[in-house]
Amino acid sequence: MTVLNTNSLLLAVFAILGILMSNNNGNMVAVQACIGDLQALRTYCANFLEKNMAKSNPSPMCCSVFMTLNVICTCNHITKEVEQVIDMEKFFYAAKYCGMPLLAGTQCGSFSVPP
């Protein structure tokens, strides 16, 4: 039941995020790429990033998402709703594990990457 609720919440959060971002006419290509990054995170990394789940190393598919991730766009669009589902410490860990460590002090949602 928890997995279903978590997946439903993730889907709703990313759907709302996609609607909000699609209203930005400034740079639609960048917005679409960012939406793709967020959807790929949900598809390939949700099991590794969810709160209340044991910490584990991300899969090679999840790492491939991190290696192509637009970190600035992704971090700028991590909302409080997303933070209710995603463990940000696991997000930072996965980025580092996958060879894409975030610089200390980088703001990602309401969290800063620790030194």
Automatic annotation (TrEMBL):
The keyword Signal applies. It comes from the Eukaryota. Keywords: Signal. Residues 25-108 form the Bifunctional inhibitor/plant lipid transfer protein/seed storage helical domain. The keyword DNA damage does not apply. Gene3D superfamilies: Plant lipid-transfer and hydrophobic proteins. SUPFAM superfamilies: Bifunctional inhibitor/lipid-transfer protein/seed storage 2S albumin. Residues 1-26 form the signal peptide. This is Bifunctional inhibitor/plant lipid transfer protein/seed storage helical domain-containing protein. It comes from Juglans regia (English walnut).
